[in-house]
Write a structure and sequence with these properties.
The complex is a heterodimer of chains A (348) and B (383). Chain A is mostly helical. Chain A is 73% helix and 2% strand. Chain A has a domain of 215 residues. Chain A has a two-stranded antiparallel sheet. In chain A, 48% of the residues are buried. Chain B has a domain of 233 residues. The chains are: A mainly alpha (348), B mainly alpha (383).
């Protein structure tokens, strides 16, 4: 059979070629390696362009927004993992929660930290109620209907906040020392105590959420539901209550993120819109179903935002959003499931 | 039980259909004569233009099962194309339509290309990003778009002398613009209807309902997906041009994320995956804010509040929740159910192979009006 194609030979060649690519570590390690290489190259360019001190200062500044995006992305991922739906209302739920904190702190005069904690608790309760009344009646696989429900809450909360609190920006206090001189100098780089407070808070929240998911019974149920709904139902997990837990947790984390960033952006009914888009980008970058990916994605997006507007003159501050999003689209083109997302096998 | 049973393709059925279409056409043609002010006719024009945008969005959401939150950007591209060409290059409004179509198509394909690999909710996120980025791009390129001041064309579309419209009366030009927009919209609706009834439409619906089996059946998924996204963007661009025909003023705020979300809302209110659903959707989009601001004056607790105008957002949201819960098929589905109580259309047995009794077509009331499922959001690692 000399005329037939030598398929066996071609297959062998392909296989050996693939094997030689596969030899360089796991796929995930290779992806992260490429990412790290890109970051290092950019850093070298940035240091060459504007000096080390400016670069370090921008890096520190980028972390503030980055960690807030991480927290919001974490909230999005919590709901996405459990329900397979992106909660478009997450930003406005956080906005509403932040307004509640504003009422408690500024109008009632309670301490800032207590105000934020109470607002988080109220948000969690409200989200649990929303889940029970508006999400649970739907078939969990009817994603379009569920997405529409989250869109309608997006509209309702935005408009309601506008009616109640109007659209003039309000100053929001910080629970950390936030005065003009509350910073320390590290090799010429200003690090504000408030920034450290934000970073630590988000890291503690991430640790707590991870512990909650890994070490508690409801956390186990949550992980079970997010990995396989049908089997979880068969082993007797109450699906609705578990998803409710996810919604409440996500709402509390979102409100915290809103309270952390409201001091910089000022508080008005639209203030979470931009943050939400960046957090979507962060969650997408991290892979939508990976909690760790959301956190790393948030920091990366925060950096992309600051660095692109700082170093690429054409982009400036107006196009920072568009620039960051182009980065996401490119990354998704190369790796559709995000950096840490699990790839799925779909069957008919 | 239906009062009236009609057999398909009999004279009675034909007459029933002709009367239905005739009534609809007459209503659309006589609409301007019911208006007491030119502003009301402008609102009708707006309804028609937004109906085209909602129809375009329906191609993506209803017929290909993907969520796009970025159609405001395509509407904006069409609008800015028209207004820039008319104001700066003195084109006629009609000549700008193909340009809007082509430009929005190209941008749609470029945005849709990621949809080759990014599916389902990833596409929603990417298109949301496009919607958020569009106003910032408008502000950035202010030499072209006139930035935050908005771009406007001085000369509006006026009726030529051979038309029966008086160019100098209050109603003449406004009514002429309404009919121009209506005519173009009808062309777009017919085009989309034919597209959906053709091979392309069947391939699209097959891939929406189950993309793996559609691919197995020979549907080239990436090509269809990108082309349809491009077509949808192109029709949205035409809708933008139509908006400029009625009022040639484009600002960055008109085409932001709010428009994108309200288009989705209007689509759900009208009816996902129905062509005619675009009309009630557009009616809701144009008239709810108009009446909601009037209602706010009647409520004591809202009076004097600076943000009271945003109460229409609450109305939208609650309405949307109501539709998803009570009438997930939208207004059109509700109308079809009502109609099914009066008229029942059965297939003509002479069209079937001989010797087999026709199975009665299920009435709309027997069908469960569920949403078309998103194709790509399998939960977790479930098979």
């Amino acid at each position: 059979m000399a005329t037939a194609l030598d398929t066996e030979g071609i297959n062998d060649q392909l296989r050996s070629g693939l094997a030689s690519i596969e030899r360089f570590g796991s796929r995930r390690a290779r992806n992260l390696g490429l990412l790290a290489l890109f970051l290092v190259l950019f850093s070298i360019y940035a240091v060459y362009d504007g000096g080390l001190r400016l670069y370090a200062q921008r890096l520190v500044d980028a972390m503030d927004n980055g960690f807030v995006y991480s927290a919001m992305a974490l909230a999005l991922v919590l709901i996405y993992k459990a329900t397979g739906v992106i909660n478009f209302a997450q930003g406005n739920m956080a906005m509403f929660g932040t307004f509640i904190a504003y009422v408690i702190i500024v109008e009632q005069g309670l301490p800032v930290a207590i105000g934020i904690l109470v607002a988080m608790a109220i948000s969690a309760l409200a989200a649990a109620v929303i889940e029970r009344l508006f999400i649970r009646p739907f078939d969990p696989s009817n994603h379009l209907a569920l997405t529409i429900v989250t869109l309608s809450w997006f509209l309702i909360l935005a408009a309601l906040a506008g009616v109640i609190w109007a659209y003039d920006p309000k100053a929001f206090p910080t629970p950390f020392p936030g005065g003009k001189n509350d910073f320390f100098d590290l090799g010429g780089v200003r690090i504000r105590y408030e920034s450290i407070g934000i970073w630590l808070t988000v890291l503690v929240v991430v640790a707590l959420v991870t512990l909650l998911l890994k070490r508690t019974k409801i956390g186990l149920a949550f992980r079970s539901v997010s990995s396989n709904l049908e089997s979880s139902r068969l082993v007797g997990i109450h699906i609705g209550r578990t998803l409710q837990f996810g919604w409440a947790l996500a709402a509390a984390v979102g409100t915290l993120a809103g309270c952390l960033i409201a001091r910089v952006t000022y508080l008005d009914p639209n203030f979470m819109g931009r943050v939400l888009v960046y957090s979507f980008a962060a969650a997408t970058l991290g892979g939508l179903d990976s909690l760790g990916g959301a956190v790393i994605g948030g920091v990366l997006i925060g950096m992309a935002e600051t660095m692109l507007s700082g170093y690429v003159g054409f982009i400036g501050s107006e196009l920072a959003l568009a620039g960051a999003l182009v980065v996401i689209v490119v990354i998704l083109l190369v790796k559709p499931s995000g950096l840490f997302g699990s790839t799925r096998v779909e069957r008919v | 039980m239906a009062k009236l049973t009609l057999t398909e393709r009999t004279p009675a059925h034909l007459a029933y259909r002709l009367v239905g279409w005739g009534l609809a056409a007459a209503a659309l043609l006589y609409l301007p004569w019911f208006a007491h002010t030119p502003a009301r006719i402008d609102q009708y024009s707006q309804v028609v233009a937004y109906a085209v945008a909602i129809l375009a969005l329906n191609l993506v959401i209803g017929y290909s099962g993907q969520i796009s939150l970025g159609h405001s950007a395509f509407v904006g591209i069409g609008a800015y194309t028209t207004v820039i060409l008319v104001a700066d290059h003195h084109w006629s409004y009609f000549a700008t339509l193909p340009v809007s179509f082509a430009l929005a198509f190209v941008v749609g394909v470029v945005v849709g290309l990621p949809a080759l690999r990014i599916r389902g909710l990833y596409l929603a996120v990417v298109t949301l990003a496009v919607a958020t980025a569009f106003p910032t791009l408008v502000l950035k390129f202010d030499s072209l778009t006139n930035g935050a001041n908005g771009k406007q064309a001085k000369e509006k579309l006026v009726p030529p002398s051979w038309t029966p419209f008086d160019a100098h009366s209050r109603f003449g030009p406004v009514a002429y613009r309404y009919f121009v927009i209506l005519a173009i919209a009808v062309v777009v609706f017919v085009l989309v209807r034919n597209l959906l009834r053709s091979r392309v439409g069947r391939a699209l619906i097959a891939s929406r309902d189950n993309q793996t089996s559609a691919a197995v059946a020979g549907v080239n998924l990436p090509v269809y997906r990108v082309l349809v996204f491009g077509m949808s963007a192109a029709f949205a661009g035409v809708a933008g041009s139509l908006l400029m025909i009625y009022n040639p003023q484009a600002t960055d705020g008109k085409f932001g994320i709010e428009l994108a979300i309200f288009l989705v809302v209007a689509l759900v209110i009208g009816g996902v995956a129905t062509l005619s659903g675009a009309v009630p959707g557009a009616l809701a989009y144009v008239f709810i804010p108009y009446y909601a601001t009037q209602w706010t004056d009647n409520f004591g607790f809202l009076k004097g509040r600076p943000g009271a105008a945003s109460i229409s957002g609450v109305v939208y949201g609650v309405l949307l929740l109501g539709f998803v819960f009570l009438l997930p098929g939208g207004v059109i589905d509700g109308l079809r159910r009502l109609r099914a109580r009066i008229v029942r259309v059965v297939p003509n047995p002479s069209w079937l192979p001989t010797g087999r009794a026709p199975a009665p077509r299920p009435d709309a009331e027997d069908l469960d009006p569920t949403f078309p499922q998103l194709t790509t959001t399998n939960r977790g690692n479930n098979p």
